[in-house]
Amino acid sequence: MRREHFMGPWGRGGRAEPPAADDAAAWITGALPDDWFTARPDVTIDRDEILIVGRLPEPDLGDEASAAERASAEAGRIASWRESTRERRIGIAKQAEHRYRRKVSWGATCGESAELFTTFSAPAMTRLRQPERQVLDTLVDAGVARSRSEALAWCVRLVGEHADQWLGQLREAMGAVDELRRQGPTI
């Protein structure tokens, strides 16, 4: 049986799962003006958000520019691109949000600089026993985080950074399972 049958029509968390977004990266690439980025943008998709990050051309400062000057020029290039494309990005985002029922977020990279803007933060509820709560409270008490919620997000980022290869393998395996389910017999 298909996974939706076991979980009901609402999927996880009591809400309807968004439509498939297998073609979203291609659709977005087609919707973007050709002169915005120097290469095809990175499009990252989950059940809540579509994040579009494109590479901008580096400012020509010559060989004499310091690292601080380069960073400042790159930040200026990103800020300028953000302002000059705002209306068009909003229009593309509205179309994609309607089509894929996910929030659309944007970002840009330039040289060594990167900035994400209008990113979406999704709430995640969990039940923690005392030992797990104590970990979060230690992070709050030490000033690493301002709240348990922020401490939990910090922990998730840390695991993501240090387990990236394993998480990638896990995602590939889950994709293979989903493909087998799609190919499976119907009842």
Largest sheet: 4 strands, mixed
Low-confidence stretches: 1-11
**How many beta-strand elements?**
4
Radius of gyration, in angstroms, nearest whole number: 21 Å
The structure class reads: alpha+beta
Span of the ends, CA to CA: 7 Å
What's the multimeric state?
A: single chain
Instruction: Strand order, main sheet: write it out.
Output: 1-2-3-4
Mean pLDDT: 87
Helical coverage, percent range: 40-55%
Q: What is the count of helical runs?
A: 6
Percent strand equals 5-15%
Whole-number total of structural domains = 2
Tell me the overall shape. globular
Order of helices and strands: HHEEHEEHHH
What features would you describe in this structure?
50% of the residues lie in helices and 13% in strands. It is built from 6 helices and 4 strands. Strands 1-2-3-4 form a 4-stranded mixed beta sheet. A hairpin with a 3-residue loop joins strand 1 and strand 2. Helix 4 packs across helix 5. The termini are close together. The relative contact order is 0.10. Mean pLDDT is 87; it is low at 1-11.
Short description:
This protein is of the alpha+beta class and 187 residues long.
Please outline the helices and strands:
Layout: H1 3-7, H2 24-31, E1 42-45, E2 49-55, H3 67-100, E3 103-110, E4 113-117, H4 130-141, H5 148-162, H6 164-183
Parallel strand pairs: 2-3
Antiparallel strand pairs: 1-2, 3-4
Helix pairs in contact: 4-5
Descriptors for this entry?
about 190 residues; alpha+beta; 2 domains; 6 helices; about 15% strand; disordered N terminus
